[in-house]
Amino acid sequence: MEPKQEIEQLTRELEHAGYLYYVLDNPEMSDYDYDHKLRRLEELEAQYPQYASPLSPTRRVGGQALSEFVKVRHAVPLESLQDVFSYDELRDFDAHVREEEPDAEYSVEPKVDGLSVALEYVDGQFVRGATRGDGLIGEDVTENLKTIRSIPMTLEHAPARLIVRGEVFMPRASFEALNAEQEKLGKPLFANPRNAAAGSLRQLDPGIAAKRRLDILVFNLQLAEGAEFQTHSETLDYLRNLKFKVIPYTLCRDMDKAEQLIAELGETRYDLPYDIDGAVMKLNSLAGRARLGSTAKFPRWAAAFKYPPEVKETVLEDIVVQVGRTGVLTPRAIVAPVHLAGTTVTAATLHNQDFITDKDIRIGDTVKIRKAGEIIPEILEVVLTRRPEGAQPYHLPDKCPVCGAPVVRDEDGAALRCTGAECPAQLSRCPIPPTSTGWTTPRLPSFPVREKNPPQIWKRPLKPASRTICPAFCAPSVSGRSAARRPRCWLPALGRWTA
């Protein structure tokens, strides 16, 4: 691919990912993949500056504020951090710092995976809280922040004006309880705790935020009128004395010790009650920070070491096919239980036939698995050296495993779709047709089935009474002179009613 084309493609991908992440709170790209794509774009723009756009994602700090909330200009910018992905890059960062600060001391802290906010106090009273937004302008979410019990509403012996920065997050226990409630109510599940925290903090009704049991860790002093400090660690201790919930930190001067601390934090991160996606190393001296300053994107005195997603090996024991309400056949891998990213994983997404074919995935294979975006298990690759003898290439069925109707491939995509007009998997999730109030779709389960073992329920005749009303509550029809009533359903896969 030509450099100009690659720059344009990466820009489109990153802008779309940023929109999903910052505006809709519905990320599809993992942070790890996003950061690597951003790094690649930075390299290309440095090599081919004539193709770089002034609106490039590399020149942005974050995303735009939502219009539902009052916009707030931060008194002190909420900067992002320089990402590093290896200890070599971390040592390069240290070398640049030591050019100005030969005796540099660092604070090593967990990088909480949540939503960054600024809390402002006047005469010891909490007056305003705002999201980071693009670093300069955020959203006023004061009322929602008041529902977080760990945020003090009043401070004793505080300066006339105080601004602190923290990370709002949803503890894992609260996240699991929230998703259990969402599932019970038939509502969409949240992808991960960070997504849930961001969505909760942006609720217009503070009552909803209050039920979500959010928490916060304060990690920086932005402004303290009349107070003077020499080091970052002093400010954290000061904020802890003011009864803020403060990020844990460890000081070190030696890079070997810093690497050890970061590695230990990575090994134990799933034991923490909250999610982290890295470790932050910050220069402790505030005067040194002032001398180093910032680039247009991030401070020169701090770096975020990003942990790669945890990868484990397991055995693919079976492949089951799920038939959705639109008739699409989706394969799903059943794997031997493996502890991954804090949970036990027993299944992984396989997307479609193209995905299976490209990676040559077969039943019985040993596969490497990770959680995409730290939440959805996916297969990375097959360990070919451990493939059992006789393992056969896998192909999705050419007939629907539920109703036996022919399966066709979408002309402009990779999806395989059941053509059965009476397929129970489609009828059971059939949406009610348009009415004066619009479309509605009952949330009933789709049907995961094994290719050669369709559910026996479809082989049992329906009772006469059950034929009067469709399980999906579709409108009954009247046909024939006897006006016998039977269900008549809309089939979204075929774009028509059943006969």
Strand content: 25-35%
Please state the CA-atom Rg, rounded to the nearest Å: 27 Å
Tally the helices.
12
- Counting helices, strands and paired strands, the structural category is alpha+beta
Shape designation: globular
Uncertain residue ranges: 430-499
Rounded average pLDDT: 83
The gist of it:
It is built from twelve helices and 23 strands. It has helices at residues 3-23, 31-47, 87-100, 142-145, 172-184, 193-201, 206-211, 232-241, 255-267, 286-292, 353-359, 424-427; strands at 71-73, 82-84, 106-112, 115-122, 125-131, 137-139, 161-169, 215-224, 250-252, 276-283, 302-306, 311-323, 328-340, 343-349, 366-372, 376-382, 407-409, 416-418, 447-449, 476-479, 484-487, 490-491, 496-497. The protein starts with a helix and ends with a strand.
Write up what this structure looks like.
By secondary structure, this protein is of the alpha+beta class. Helix content is 25%, strand content 27%. The chain contains 12 helices and 23 strands. The strands form 6 sheets. Strands 12, 13, 14, 15, 16, 17, 18 and 19 form an 8-stranded antiparallel sheet that branches. A 5-stranded mixed sheet has the order 2-11-10-3-9, sandwiched between helices. Helix 1 (3-23) runs antiparallel to helix 2 (31-47). The longest helix is centred in the first third of the chain and has 21 residues, at 3-23. The protein is globular, with a radius of gyration of 27 Å.
